[in-house]
């Protein structure tokens, strides 16, 4: 199947979009000094927007729902790349997030909080989301919530989206993530994409305790299935990712060797890679392969750029059955260059 033949629509919600400003440092930052930047760039962002951009770059049918005025620079930038938008007008400009990247690829993020959304704006976003979700294959709720938004809003949306027939993926953190899982099985998404820090938040332990104890990490992943989550995509940065399904099966993936330029948006591209493989009807191991290949390709690009399909090579991703740190198992062979 070619990238331009991907079946099924995906709808993303970005409640707290941003303009992502990347500043390339010539050396590690020294506080109090003067820095002459090696380069800079600005991309339309927010986690759901990044997922939508990656899907669109692969030829996917995607609609991005977000709050923004028609004249906002993020709307102009997204329309310029041909992304289909469903915007709800707000009076406040979209926030700007800043990423400092040093030559070793270390990133430091400075994120503005975003503007509060009125109850009427949230209702309009929900209406737009439901309207486009009808007949869609996936709905993605992604990113932080603006100040003043009820932390249980994602949980409310998951419950209300059930009648659309779309599968639901969620990628968030902190209070909204905790509220989502506390809301019970009715609010549990079909796919949850935590990183190690977020998994530790859910488990109620320090991140270092999980990273140093594979058994504890595995237990934390399985507890998400006990709470109703059907599929867990755990991203681990340079250590790859894990995909677990509710039937007890689990796969681990190691990424290819790359030169890291920026990790901003890499997790979002991993989620997009999984969705592309899911839309193409690929089995779980291939969904994981696609996720890790997309994440690695993103990290090799500057700023929050998203990869084109030609930049994604799933054949270099090593998949094994089982959890990292468990007994070695036979690798799962690659099914082609990349599942798109």
From TrEMBL:
Keyword Heme appears in the UniProt entry: no
Any one GO CC term of the record: cytosol
GO molecular function: ATP binding; phosphofructokinase activity
Pfam families: PfkB
Domain Carbohydrate kinase PfkB per the UniProt entry, residue ranges: 41-309
Signal peptide per UniProt: none
InterPro entries xref list: PfkB_dom (IPR011611), Ribo/fructo_kinase (IPR002139), Ribokinase-like (IPR029056), Tagatose/fructose_Pkinase (IPR017583)
Family: Belongs to the carbohydrate kinase PfkB family.
The name this protein goes by in its record: 1-phosphofructokinase
């Amino acid at each position: 199947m070619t990238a331009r033949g991907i079946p099924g629509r995906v709808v993303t919600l970005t409640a707290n979009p941003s303009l992502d400003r990347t500043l390339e440092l010539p050396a590690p930052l020294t506080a109090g000094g003067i820095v002459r930047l090696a380069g800079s760039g600005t991309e339309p962002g927010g986690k759901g927007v990044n997922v939508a951009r990656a899907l669109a770059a692969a030829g996917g049918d995607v609609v991005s729902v977000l709050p923004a005025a028609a004249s906002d620079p993020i709307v102009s930038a997204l329309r310029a790349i041909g992304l289909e938008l469903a915007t709800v007008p707000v009076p406040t400009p979209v926030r700007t997030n800043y990423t400092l990247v040093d030559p070793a690829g270390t990133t430091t993020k400075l994120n503005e909080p975003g503007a509060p959304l009125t109850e009427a704006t949230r209702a309009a976003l929900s209406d737009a989301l439901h309207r486009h979700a009808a007949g869609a294959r996936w709905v993605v709720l992604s990113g932080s919530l603006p100040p003043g938004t009820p932390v249980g809003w994602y949980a409310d949306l998951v419950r209300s989206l059930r009648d659309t027939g779309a599968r639901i993926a969620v990628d968030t953190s902190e209070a909204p993530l905790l509220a989502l899982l506390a809301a019970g099985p009715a609010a549990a998404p079909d796919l949850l994409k935590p990183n190690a820090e977020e998994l530790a938040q859910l488990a109620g332990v320090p991140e270092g305790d999980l990273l140093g104890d594979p058994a504890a990490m595995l237990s934390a992943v399985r507890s998400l299935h006990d709470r109703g989550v059907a599929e867990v995509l755990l991203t681990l940065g340079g250590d790859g990712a894990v995909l677990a399904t509710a039937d007890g099966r689990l796969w681990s993936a190691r990424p290819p060797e790359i030169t890291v330029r920026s990790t901003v948006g890499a997790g979002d591209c991993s989620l997009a890679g999984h969705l592309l493989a899911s839309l193409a009807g690929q089995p779980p191991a291939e969904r994981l392969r696609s996720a890790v290949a997309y994440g690695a390709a993103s990290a090799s690009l500057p700023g929050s750029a998203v990869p084109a399909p030609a930049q994604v090579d799933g054949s270099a991703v090593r998949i094994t059955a089982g959890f990292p740190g468990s007994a070695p198992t036979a690798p799962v062979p690659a099914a082609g260059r990349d599942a798109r």
